Structure formats: C-alpha cells, structure tokens
Amino acid sequence: MNFGAIFGLIIFPLLIILTALILSIVLKEEGE
Amino acid sequence: MENVSQIAVHANTLAVLSFIFYLLIIILIGVLATKFSSAGISEFFIGGRKMKEFVVALSAVVSGRSSWLMIGVTGIAYIRGASAIWAVAGYIIVELFLFLFLAKRLRRYTEKMDNLTLPDFFESRYKDKSNLLRITSVIIILIFMVAYVSAQFNAGGKAFGASFGLGEFNGVLITALIVLAYTMMGGFLAVSLTDTVQAIFMIIGLLILPIIAIINLGGWSEVLHALSQIDPEVLGSFSIDPFALSVGGIIGFLGIGLGSPGNPHILVRYMSIDDPRALRKSALIGTVWNTLMAWGAIYIGIVGRAYYPVKKLLPNSDPENLYPYLASTHLHPVIFGIIIASIFAAIMSTADSQLLVAASGVIRDIYQKIMVKGKEISQKKLVLLSRVVIILLVIIALILGAIASQLVFWLVLFAWAGLGASFGPTIILSLFWKRTTKQGVMAGLISGTLITIIWNQVHFLKATIYELVPAFIISTLLTIIVSLFTTPPPEASKELEEISARYKR
Prior knowledge:
Structural class of chain A: mainly alpha
Strand content of chain B: under 5%
Largest interface: A-B, 23 and 31 residues
CATH superfamily of chain B: Sodium/glucose cotransporter
Distance between the termini of chain A: 45 Å
Structural class of chain B: mainly alpha
Radius of gyration of chain B: 22 Å
Largest sheet of chain A: none
CATH topology of chain B: Sodium/glucose cotransporter
Helix content of chain A: over 70%
Low-confidence stretches of chain A: none
Mean pLDDT of chain B: 91
Number of domains of chain B: 1
CATH class of chain B: Mainly Alpha
CATH architecture of chain B: Up-down Bundle
Order of helices and strands of chain B: HHHHHHHHHHHHHHHHHHHHH
Oligomer: heterodimer
Helix content of chain B: over 70%
Number of helices of chain B: 21
Low-confidence stretches of chain B: none
Number of strands of chain A: 0
C-alpha cells in the first residue's frame, strides 16, 4: 500500500475520530 | 442518497427467524412508547425534548443514512476503491460540526420559543405574521419528505421481496405497515429508540462482514495480492489510493456532506435532546458510529472486488448487490439474517423519521398554526389527528410509489441536495448571523431548491460538479445579499446572544 492508501483507509478515519474526541473534551461550557 | 436497486439474494429459514426477531423488537418498542407519545404533540413530534445523548447521536446519524450507505457506498467502493472515502468523509465531518455548534443553538432557540418544527423556527426567528415563511418551508418539506418515504418503501419492498421470495408488491406493503405501526403508535420516542436499535444492527453488519471476508481470503495482504493480480483493464477506475480521484471528483463527493444541515429529519433530532450541553458527547458517539459504519462499507467494497473482480460474478451484474451477496456466501445464516435486517434498519430508520417530519408539517404547521390558529385544541385531539395524518401520508406515499414512480424517482434525485441547499444555508445563517432577514431566507429557500433542479437537468452543468455544491453556495450568497438590503427582525442580536454557548477558557 502506498501512503495515499494508508492515509485513506487507516489514518483518515482515526484522525476524524480523534478530532471528535478532542473537540468533545475541549468544548466544555461554563457551568459544566 | 437513495437506493432502489434490487437485492437478489435469498434467505433461508434461520436467516428469516433472526430477521423476524429483529422486527419483533422494533414493533415492541413502538408499543412501549405509545403511552409517552400520547401525552401531547411535543412528546409525539420531538419526544418532549427528553432524549438522552446516546439516543440522539445514533438516531441523528442513522436517520441521515438510508440504504445508500450499505448498498450504494459498498457499490462505489467496489467500482472505485478507496476513492469512496470522499463520499463519506464530507457528511461525517459536517455532522460532527453540526452536533458541536449548530445543534446547540437550534435546540436552545427552539425550546425558548416552543418550536416543534423548522417552519416554527423560521416564523419565530423572523417574527413573520404573514405565514409566508411557514408555508414556503412546509411545502418544500412535504414534497421532498413524502417522495423520500415513498422511495424508502419501494427500496424496502424490493429488498424484502427478493430476500424472502414474497414479491415486490408484498414487500412494499410489509415495509410500509411495519414503519406505520411503530411510528403511528410510538411517535418520536419509538422512532428514536428503534433508530438506536437499527444503528446497532447496521454497525454490526458493516463491521462483521468485512472482517470475516478479509479473514476468509487469508488476511489483508492476500486481499491486496488478489487485487494486484487482476488485469488493470478489468479493474478500470478501481484503486486503493483515494487520491487517484480527480480534484473535481473529490470536491463533488465531499459536497454530499452539505446536505446534512438542511435535511429536517436530521435537524429535528438535535432539537429533542434533554440537555443541550450533552450534545458534545453526542458528537463523539455519532462521529465514531458514522466513521466505523462508513469505513466498514468501504472495506466491504474493496474486499468484494478481490472476491468478484468482474461485475458479472454478482447477482444481476450489479455492484449494489455486493453487500447482501458477500454476506450470503460468507456468514452463518443467523448472522446473514442480521445483515438483511441491517439493510431494512437503514431503510426504516430513515423512512420513520421522514414520515414523522412530514406529519408534523401537516399537523403543527398547517393545521394548528394556520387552519385553527388562535383556537384551543386539546393535546389529545392533536395527537389523534397526527396519527390519522401518518396513516394518510403512508397511503399517499404508497399510491405515489405505485402510480407515479417516475415522479418519486425524479423528486428523490433532488431531495438530499434540494433540502440541503435550501434549508442548510438559511438555518445556519439564521442561527449564527443576526443580520439575516426574512426576505433573505425566502431567497435562500427558493434559490437553493431551484438551482439544485436546474443544475441537475442541464447536462453540461451536471457534468462539472454535484449540484448540491453550487446550489449551496449560491443560496448562501443570495441569503446574505438580500439580507443586507433588507431590515432584520428586532431583538435578533439579543436572541442569538442568549442561545450562544459560553465555553470554558
């Protein structure tokens, strides 16, 4: 597999989930 | 994001039994939710805003995914390989941001103003006493939603008929009756809870199948080896490199995601959560679910190509039959029953949400807010009428599917893009830009719908890019330009300030 395939099939989905994880932690509101 | 292709795979007795077990769970949920949903139309149409983050996350995610995900995306990945990631990446990323930002504002505003529907929201936001915004938006919603429901029944019927040898007509009827039963009885709560169960079936199907298929072939390296042995002439545009697709192709695929903020059956999910602060948890749950399901579908397409290098090896030579066919040849009948159930889960979880949104348009927007405006109508009567309307809408959807299938096909072709381009920009701007005006929203709603249809119908335009992308951009620009030349409603900035979240620093 070349880099494109590794990125598309493995890294990219992990990046999306990681982004969701970070944003869901960081975006806490006042009072939480 | 629709699919009405024929699934030519037959199930045996064990598969049928596991499928029936699944249907019983769905119907039982409908029965159990009946009492809660009978309390009033707020309960019936948005679950009394008492839904928890897990239910909202899964319901919002699977309402937006019809059988297109399991049948369409697997088919795209079979033909084009890893380029299919662009077809799913757009909506996954857009929906992550909807959960995190738009959903909170929409939920807070609609609770403050006691809005149950999107036309309700527009009317409150722009203090529109003329009913113009309500009527325009409800017409667009009703046309597309009823066509959508009709197409879902049709897709379910074809799959049902082919899988269980019941014939297409009976399949359509059974699909419609099941969706009708639990939606009519249990309203939003039943729809949300069944969506949650359906989401579990969908993710099981989309994860188990590629894993087993890859193992059966001897592992991922064997899949790659098998693909490398296929004549490039036979492979055509297939590649495991997603960047093999042209830039225009990538943008077009990513553009599918622009439909999510404008499809009311997705947006209404956000309005139903009990605590808007919990939407950040929904964002994580929904994104994990969306991503795993989508990449599962892509791996199925890729491994499927290794098994069946040429289309002729698939039933009806149709790549869209890959998912059930691969499952029928690799899985135990009970698991295969779950795979078939997962296709119906995708169809029904979309159809039920669309049916409920259409019914809310009739009862809340047309009947309660226009026909009997100012009169006191009991909640019991409104719920009863809502149930009657759901029955009528199912009958209309069935008749439309039977006598005007071409019209349904034509409308559904634009439904995702048309709703996305008309409601998407106008709702985003209404929630985030205080300068937006009623006239601007009207311009956005009409231009988004019309440009989607025109772009799709003009051959040389359609050949350039997916119609949703230009329609979304033009609708956004027109909403902004017209708003700048007209007067915004009073108190807009105060209202938007009140619903904006203040994040910890």
